[in-house]
Amino acid sequence: MRATYHPLVPRGSPGLVSVVIPIFDEEETLPLLFSRLDRLLSELGCKGEVVLVNDGSSDRSIDLLLARASVDDRYKVIGLARNFGHQIASTAGLEIARGDAIVLMDADLQDPPEVVVEMVRKYREGYDVVYARRIAREGDTVFKRVTAWLFYRLMRSLVHRDLPVDVGDFRLMSRPCLDALRSMKELHRFLRGMVTWIGFAQTHVDFVRPARVAGVTKYPLRKMLLFAWNAAISFSVLPLRLSFLAGLALVATAVTYAMYSLWRIFTGAFVVPGWMSLIMVNCLTSGAAMVGMGILGEYVGRIFEEVKKRPLYITSLTANVETAGRLGEDPSWLSHSFDARVERPTSG
Ligand code: UDP
Ligand code: MG
Predict the structure, then answer these.
(1) How far away, in angstroms, is 99 Cα from ligand 1 center?
(2) Atom 16, ligand 1: residue with shortest CA distance
(3) For residue 272, what pLDDT is reported?
(4) Residue-level pLDDT at 141
(5) Count of Cβ atoms closer than 10 Å to residue 314 Cβ
(6) What pLDDT digit, counting tens, does each position of 199-252 carry?
(7) Distance 237 CA to ligand 1 centre (A)
(8) Residue 195 burial (CB count, 10 A)
């Protein structure tokens, strides 16, 4: 199928660009990040703000963030009450962002801030989503490259056929696009898939992904597998269908085998020593039933979590965030998560 055609209407520079960054144990990278962001803000050619989300770091990241916010009010900080994970921390930041164009990026400078200038150029051409495509990865291990390659191809078949490959969450969104994203209320969030689902005029800019400037990855294999599983299960019913197909295949095998046995009986062949195959078929069928139930359970579990209607995250502190802003104007599902917020003055 061909992609939707969108007529592009060129527009001026955005009035305000928001840069949203989730932060988890990034003490070492923050000083470098701030200096690169300062440079970006001066090169943007329009007003800019940075929304820093502390995702329950166990190091002193939050102190550095608050110190920054106290000397420069373009830096907004929200602190989550614990580690909620990259996707939810990003969502929390997007909720605070007030820009006409909003950029989501990582804290470790693997998403070079300079690329944002190019994204804003595409925004002015009329695009609503500009994602950054990695044409090469520096400093990643062969293992990370291979698993990432596999991940993006697999996700395309599971999540959405338009899901761009070799693209992370580093992207620019226009305000209408972000508002559409904010209307999607699911707990299990796979942001890049959700942005693809929204549609709009989407394009990309290419960049070479550098190595992390400092610190270590916060996505070890276990988290990566969980991330992939989450994406697959929350976006598609294909796993359910696969388990159905696997069950069907087993039934077909059993029927074929039964007919074969009957044929042997009728032709007078020796049949009794068949307990091996009997046990095999038995194991196969009960195994398949359990796999099927397990997958079903995943979905039922998700329904259970969704019906609880818990807030997506809890905020424990903010700095430079205007309460009268977006939070107040949209008393929707997320806003009650802010009841737990303790507003702390940033001075001093
Ligand atoms: N991150 C987060 N919460 C987490 C894990 C990661 O906010 O639970 C942030 C992290 O600080 C970084 C971004 O998400 O800004 C991407 O993480 P990382 O660079 O470790 O992932 P990788 O690039 O290795 O896939
Ligand atoms: Mg990284």
Answers:
(1) 23
(2) 106
(3) 66
(4) 81
(5) 17
(6) 999 999 999 989 888 888 888 888 888 888 888 888 887 888 888 888 888 878
(7) 28
(8) 27
pLDDT at 104 over 90: yes
CA of 26 to the centre of ligand 1 (A): 9
- Residue with CA closest to ligand 1 atom 24: 217
Tell me the two tokens of residue 67.
Answer: 């110190």
Position 69 confidence tier, pLDDT thresholds 50, 70, 90: very high
Distance CA 348, CA 22 (A): 24
Query: Residue 197's closest CA among 173, 219, 214, 180?
Result: 180
pTM score > 0.90 for this model?
no
Domain co-membership, 174 together with 261: no
3 located within any domain:
no
Q: Does residue 13 carry a pLDDT above 50?
A: yes
Q: Decide if pLDDT at 53 tops 70.
A: yes
Q: Looking at the structure, do residues 26 and 56 belong to the same domain, yes or no?
A: yes
Distance of alpha carbon 89 from alpha carbon 101, whole angstroms: 19
Neighbours of ion ligand 2 (CB under 5 A): 106, 108, 110
CB-based pocket (< 6 A), ligand 1 = 22-24, 26, 55, 83, 85-86, 89, 106-108, 110, 217-219
Q: Do 39 and 188 share a domain, yes or no?
A: yes
* Whether 23 contacts 30, CB under 8 Å: yes
**204 and 260, same domain (yes or no):** no
Our count of domains for the chain comes to 2
Q: Which one of 104, 140, 218, 313 would you pick to mutate in the ligand 1 pocket, going by the greatest count of ligand atoms within 8 A of its CB?
A: 218
Tens digits of residue pLDDT in 249-300: 887 887 788 788 788 778 877 666 676 677 777 877 887 887 888 888 888 8
Task: Please tell me the distance between residue 108's alpha carbon and the centre of ligand 1 in angstroms.
Answer: 8
271 and 130 in a single domain? The answer is: no
Tokens found for residue 252: 């077909």
Same domain, 152 and 229: yes
How many CB atoms sit inside 10 A of residue 98's CB? 16
Asked if residue 227 lies in contact with residue 219, where contact means CB atoms within 8 angstroms, the answer is yes
- Domain containing 268 equals 238-307
Rounded to the nearest angstrom, the distance between the alpha carbon of 136 and the centre of ligand 1 is 19
- Residue having the nearest C-alpha atom to atom 13 of ligand 1: 106
